[in-house]
Specification:
The structure holds two protein chains of two kinds. Chain A is mainly beta. Chain A is 0% helix and 51% strand. Chain A has no helices and eleven strands. Chain A is globular. Chain A starts with a strand and ends with a strand. Chain B is mostly beta strands. Chain B is globular. The N and C termini of chain B lie far apart (41 Å). Classes of the chains: A mainly beta, B mainly beta. Chains A and B meet through β4, β5, β9 and β10 of A and β5, β6, β10 and β11 of B.
Chain lengths: 112, 113
């Protein structure tokens, strides 16, 4: 069964460093999403991506964040200069445009 | 803005007893509603969804949920809990044209033998 994959499963970084979180969506899907979950809090929407551009972003998704689909299969989330409060589980999801989003297992980002 | 409320972060249920997880939503348009389950160290897996049509929806692993517009609710039930049901459960509502999901805080279900 097709699934969304994410790498790495756990990323530890120093404050101020850049990180790139990677996702491989399901191959025939066209809509891509990033969510995050800070420990003990709700899963929060960050950004959606369609047709090679951002279709919607939340107030969390400020200039420190960017997304890219560099090669037609990967979907990446970059955080330019990480802050302590960026520590969270980051989930990638993809959809064929109907209603269900399929989620990856997540990347746990720890900023020291 | 659309939102979801799930009360009671931790829910304990005896094996064989009814599982009931409550979800209330707020939406200015007809909602799409979802329940997701998360097992340890895994991603979010769809249990069931309501989009249109029949208001009682059945999902995987014996779970079902009923959409009640008058009560703005989408409670999740399972008649008989199994040890394998121990997990975190999230209710979500789809919002906007891109179907961004707004999640509740989740319920951590513990099944007591």
């Amino acid at each position: 069964e097709p699934e969304v994959t994410q790498t790495p499963s756990h990323q530890v970084t120093q404050m101020g460093q850049e990180v790139i979180l990677r996702c491989v969506p399901i191959s025939n899907h066209l809509y891509f999403y990033w969510y995050r979950q800070i420990l003990g809090q709700k899963v929060e929407f960050l950004v959606s991506f369609y047709n090679n551009e951002i279709s919607e972003k939340s107030e969390i998704f400020d200039d420190q964040f960017s997304v890219e689909r560099p090669d037609g299969s990967n979907f990446t989330l970059k955080i330019r200069s990480t802050k302590l409060e960026d520590s969270a589980m980051y989930f990638c999801a993809s959809s064929d445009g109907l209603d269900e989003q399929f989620f990856g297992p997540g990347t746990r980002l720890t900023v020291l | 803005a659309q939102s979801v409320t799930q009360l009671g972060s931790h829910v304990s249920v005896s094996e064989g007893a009814l599982v009931l997880l409550r979800c209330n939503y707020s939406s200015s348009v007809p909602p799409y509603l979802f329940w997701y389950v998360q097992y340890p160290n895994q991603g979010l897996q769809l249990l069931l969804k309501y989009t249109t049509g029949a208001t009682l929806v059945k999902g995987i692993n014996g779970f079902e949920a009923e959409f009640k517009k008058s009560e703005t609710s989408f409670h999740l039930t399972k008649p008989s809990a199994h040890m394998s049901d121990a997990a975190e459960y999230f209710c979500a509502v789809a919002t906007g044209g891109n179907n961004r999901l707004a999640f509740g805080k989740g319920n951590q279900v513990v099944v007591i033998p």
